[in-house]
Design brief:
Blueprint lengths: L4 E2 L5 H10 L12 E7 L2 E2 L1 E3 L6 H18 L5 E2 L6 E9 L4 H8 L15 E7 L5 E9 L2 H14 L19 E5 L2 E3 L6 E6 L6 H9 L8 H14 L3 E3 L15 H7 L3 E2 L11 H4 L2 H4 L4 H18 L7 E3 L16 H23 L8 E3 L4 H7 L9 E5 L21 E6 L17 H13 L5 E7 L5 H12 L8 H15 L4 H17 L29 H20 L7 H33 L5 H25 L34 E6 L21 E2 L6 E8 L3 E8 L4 E3 L3 E5 L6 E8 L9 E2 L16 E9 L4 E9 L2 E2 L8 E2 L4 E5 L5 E3 L5 E6 L6 E6 L9 H7 L2 E8 L3 E9 L12 E6 L5 E4 L7 H9 L2 E9 L3 E9 L5 E8 L18
Parallel strand pairs: 1-32, 4-5, 4-6, 6-8, 11-12, 11-18, 12-13, 14-15, 15-16, 16-17, 17-18, 20-28, 26-29, 30-35
Antiparallel strand pairs: 2-3, 2-9, 7-8, 7-10, 19-21, 21-25, 22-24, 22-27, 23-25, 27-28, 31-41, 32-35, 33-34, 34-41, 35-40, 36-39, 36-41, 37-38, 37-40
Protein name: Gylcosyl hydrolase 115 C-terminal domain-containing protein
Keywords: Hydrolase
InterPro entries: GH115 (IPR031924), GH115_C (IPR041437), GH115_sf (IPR042301), Hex-like_dom2 (IPR029018)
């Protein structure tokens, strides 16, 4: 992208300074680093942890010791007392728990003022002669039990141990010695107080794996499984769990040992929006025995369940979800009540819940962690007047597809209970599930959570991670942001994080190539998740539908997507040989299976659609496409079988399902074959036409390729294909020397996948007859009916043994002085296509500006209006004067009405009373406001989230052919513009906008 002007208004430097200032990371106090051996010359350094430390500290100590042994083969001792004589030791303890830490504090050898009384904060420093007989000690001091555990496991991080050492088989690299560079540092407190995972939709992965492979003695997700999950969470510095809660899983508190295990690992237990008061309604409410799940008619029985759970969890760290929804993620069962009556009933439910918390826990409700989750219809209740106590955390939710529905208003940001976010990286529901692979773009996660952090919604962040696998990277990104969001002040922070993550796991020499592979993977998934490739929907489940990807226009976007996916999976296979043997399993789990699986799912359906199209035209190649589709389906099965049975002798058996819920998208696709014809004949199909070339009229006017434009240096394709059985040799003969063909002869046959060939027709523009120079384009002419003085015609003859067919080639080749060295966009066949990040000029607003987010959006760079705190501006006069503006130069060969189509990411308003708007205008016309806001779970919203795109349009007048300027202004902060299409009547339906029409003169 080469933008020509970035214009500065007088206040821009101040704006930039304030914007930068808001992102300065929290400082970490430190001094000079010094080497501290963990294992050296065959000796290991012991770890001192006193016996009365909380259980999680001992767990972390044993995890660290195990890590050292996995790296070096030597296991450090964990001891309780300070040795009488030792060169060096590690001392880890919690303030008020460890007598050795207390002694160091009393003797003023350590200063705990930076962490005392703080949430999950610790210090690490090396002391010389801390105790008699000890020459040196690495001291880890935690403000609380989790802080001490995190501090111990920070050593594992420094040793290069991945959080995924067990969960993704990231085998620690062997070393004979471990020497760490240490300095005096203070860590924490975290950006987000409660940071955790929601284990959800576990029916096809986590639950069957736990029940039948990992923990058959329990036959469910029990304490052994949760211990491994909690180990992962400790390594990720996560502290909160919403346990698995589907009906296939026994309720968390009904399995002996689950609650105790959570407490041992210092994991706070909460529950989702449909599990009030830590109660799993799916499993714990028996309607036959307990009556209806209705508070207006059965409150006493419901309160008994709530009371029992509060008593059961009295001594555990818990977060109580207050309020009430229906059973299993459904609206409250109160169909006979009005919305206002439901609101009053819900307020009574909350009041009763808080009363029982105070009574059973013997403390004020305001001191007991509680969360209210306005999910789906409950958000409507809140927006229409539902009162939530000020000390309760309000947990905003996304729309299940990664776009947060609402954030805190400036007033709500002052609430004592603060706010949080419940965010999906996996989802079961309408318009379609995505439960198979990890396909949410990391830059989207960053943008939405960064937005939440900027609006002070950072008391609690929970990620719906499905079965944990294969969500590994997005889980780590989410938790790292929650731990220190200030380290993610810019979107490129995410790219750097991904690169480091991959480099740490697979060796630095591969990190850049791997990073690009994964960015390409997320980009293609963003444009259409693999689970959505059948164009089917759920609730109700529909059969596969026709694809929206065009095969006949804009270079064949369906085949282009197929090529992109195939090339990406090929790169993975090539790179696999460079991965060390001890990381091959990790590579398969973290890179190979997700990329290859998504590629194969795309191949399965894209070849299916190619099969249908080819069969309609009678192409013999329909058979080869059917076979390719079937091969992709079978290969998905092979890859999944290896995941379950091949890794570590079946370690992950039953963890990976290739068909969650057995939805139609996962099925073996059908296929069509043309009617058999014994006689072989040659068929031709041109770009832009649904039907093949009419051979009964060899010189038909319709047998003409789309007009090619010198200012775009574009090309078009011709498909040469076999109909019937046999072999046909063909030759393509350009009738003018300026017509260039990618292939000029070949053979089509029914064997060896040679049923068709694609020829790309391009132009040698230096050889095209020169047209006259002029200052102006043709006034008011339809671009499809170009005057002879601006057009050059030619043809290509396709010759076989017994047939000659002529295909017309027309080029637009005038010489307009005004386009000499032009850097803007030009009209192509009745439209202008622009990527939002390819602006000509960018003007800051009074208190805002457009900022790029690279790697996000269809274009690969969206423009985001920031800061989020900026005021909305909707008055047309003020828009021109005060709003930040993006400006694009474009050139048309026509005049008349135009439809300005703007594609944005389908985000939601920041909060009630806001919207998602920008304004557009051509030249000096008045700004026209367009709004991307959707209502509820409307059909428009469904299509938007399936495509990760919202498109709105505004009419404009192109007064005359020639140079023009398109301007886009911010109306609301947070709007993200991706692509623009100026349709002068020539655009035909396609899934994406046509490729950019940037002038290439």
């Amino acid at each position: 992208m080469k933008n020509t002007i970035d214009k500065i208004r007088p206040f821009d430097f101040l704006l930039a300074f304030l914007f930068t200032l808001s992102f300065i990371p929290a400082t970490v106090k430190g001094n000079e680093k010094q080497a501290f051996p963990i294992v050296s010359k065959g000796n290991t350094t012991s770890l001192v942890v006193v016996g009365n430390e909380p259980k999680v500290v001992h767990i972390a100590a044993n995890m660290f010791a195990g890590d050292v042994q996995n790296i070096t083969g030597k296991h450090p001792e964990i001891i309780r007392e300070i040795p009488q004589k030792e060169n060096r030791i590690i001392i880890a303890g919690t303030i008020g728990k460890s007598k050795w830490i207390n002694k160091l504090v009393t003797e003023k050898k350590v200063n705990i003022s930076t962490i005392k009384g703080k949430w999950e904060s610790w210090t690490m420093q090396v002391l010389e002669k801390p105790f008699p007989g000890v020459k040196q000690a690495l001291v880890i001091i935690g403000s609380d039990r989790r802080a001490t555990a995190y501090g111990i496991l920070e050593l594992s991080r420094m040793m290069g141990v991945s959080a995924w050492e067990w969960w993704a088989d990231v085998t620690p690299i062997h070393q004979n010695e471990i020497v760490l560079n240490m300095s005096h540092k203070t860590y924490g407190s975290p950006s987000v107080k409660y940071r955790g995972l929601f284990l959800n939709d576990e029916d096809w992965g986590l639950q069957p794996w736990a029940a039948k492979t990992f923990e058959p003695e329990t036959g469910d997700i029990g304490p052994k499984t949760y211990a491994k999950i909690f180990e992962l969470m400790l390594r990720l510095r996560a502290n909160t769990i919403w346990p698995a809660m589907h009906s296939c899983t026994k309720a968390f508190y009904t399995i002996p040992g689950n609650a105790k295990t959570a407490d041992d690992y210092a994991i706070v237990v909460g529950t989702s929006h449909c599990e009030p008061m830590l109660c799993n309604i799916n499993e714990e409410w028996n309607s036959e025995r307990m009556g209806e799940w209705r508070y207006d008619t059965n409150a006493d029985t419901i309160r008994k369940l709530f009371n029992r759970r509060v008593e059961q969890t009295e001594n555990y760290e818990s977060i109580y979800t207050i309020g009430m929804r229906g059973k299993h993620d459904s609206p409250m069962d109160a169909k006979n009540l009005s919305e206002q009556d439901r609101i009053k009933l819900l307020e009574k439910v909350i009041a009763d819940q808080r009363n029982m918390l105070e009574k059973d826990k013997h403390e004020k409700a305001s001191s007991i962690p509680q969360v209210f989750i306005p999910y789906k219809e409950v958000l409507g209740y809140y927006q229409h007047g539902l009162k939530v106590p000020d000390d309760v955390t309000i947990m905003w939710t996304d729309d299940n597809y990664g776009y947060i529905r609402q954030l805190s208003t400036p007033g709500e940001q002052k609430r004592a209970g603060g706010a949080g976010i419940y965010y999906h990286a996996s989802y079961w529901g309408r318009p379609h599930d995505y439960l198979w692979l990890s396909t949410t773009h990391p830059l989207l996660i960053w943008e939405e959570m960064h937005k939440a952090y900027q609006t002070n919604d950072h008391n609690m962040w929970i990620l719906n991670c499905g079965d944990i696998k294969p969500m590994e990277y997005n889980i780590e990104l989410f938790m790292d942001m929650a731990w220190n969001m200030k380290a993610f002040s810019r979107p490129d922070s995410v790219v750097n994080h991904l690169e480091k993550w991959l480099g740490d796991i697979f060796a630095p020499k591969n990190e850049k190539e791997l990073t690009q592979i994964m960015l390409d993977y997320y980009h293609l998934c963003f444009m259409r998740r693999p689970e959505f490739m059948a164009w089917s929907q759920t609730e109700p489940v529909t059969k596969p539908q026709e694809t929206e990807l065009t095969q006949i226009r804009y270079g064949d976007e369906l085949t282009r997507r197929l090529k992109d996916w195939t090339q990406l999976s090929d790169k993975v296979k090539e790179l696999k040989s460079t991965i060390p043997a001890d990381r091959q399993d990790a590579f398969f789990e973290l890179v190979d299976y997700p990329v290859t699986g998504a590629s194969l799912m795309n191949q399965k359906w894209l070849y299916h659609y190619k099969n249908e199209f080819a069969a309609q035209q009678g192409r013999t190649s329909a058979g080869q496409f059917a076979k390719a589709s079937d091969n992709a389906y079978k290969q998905i099965k092979t890859e999944t079988d290896y995941y379950n049975k091949g890794i570590e002798n079946g370690k992950w058996n039953k963890m990976m399902s290739m068909a969650p819920r057995n939805l139609p998208v996962f099925s073996e696709p059908s296929f069509e074959l043309p009617q058999p014809d014994a006689k072989a004949s040659l068929g031709l199909a041109l770009e832009g036409y649904q039907m093949e070339v009419n051979q009964d009229i060899p010189n038909a006017y319709s047998n003409v390729l789309p007009v090619l434009n010198e200012y775009l240096k574009d090309s078009a394709f011709v498909d040469v294909f076999l109909k019937g059985n046999g072999i046909i040799n063909w030759t393509a003969v350009p009738q003018q020397p300026w017509i260039h063909l990618s292939v000029s002869n070949g053979t089509v046959s029914g064997n060896n996948n040679k049923g068709e060939q694609r020829i790309w027709v391009s132009i040698d523009w230096d050889k095209v007859p020169q047209r006259k120079n002029t200052d102006e384009p043709p006034l008011g002419h339809d671009y499809q009916l170009i005057p002879p003085s601006y057009k050059v015609n030619g043809s290509i003859q396709f010759v076989t043994k017994d047939t000659t067919l002529a295909i017309g080639v027309s080029v637009f080749n005038p010489k307009f002085k005004s386009l000499n060295d032009y850097k803007g966009f030009v009209e192509a066949n009745g439209y202008v296509s622009i990527n939002a990040g390819d602006w000509t000029a960018r003007y800051p607003g009074k208190n805002a500006n457009w900022k790029p987010i690279k790697h996000l959006g269809y274009s690969g760079e969206v423009m985001l209006a920031l800061p989020y705190q900026a005021a909305s501006i909707s008055n047309p006069a003020q828009i021109k004067e005060q709003s930040p503006c993006l400006e694009y130069d474009f050139y048309t060969f026509n005049k008349g009405e135009a439809n300005i189509r703007v594609q944005a990411l389908p985000t939601h308003p920041l909060y009630k009373g806001k919207s998602v708007r920008c304004a557009v205008a051509v030249d000096e016309q008045e700004p026209v406001i367009i709004d991307f806001k959707t209502v509820g779970r409307s059909e428009e919203w469904k299509q938007n989230v399936l495509k990760n795109a919202a498109v709105k349009s505004a009419p404009q007048i192109i007064n005359q052919p020639g140079k023009h300027k398109l301007r886009i202004w911010m109306v609301d902060p947070g709007v993200m513009v991706d692509r623009i299409l100026i349709d002068l009547g020539g655009w035909k339906e396609s899934y994406t906008f046509p490729p950019e029409t940037k002038c290439r003169n």
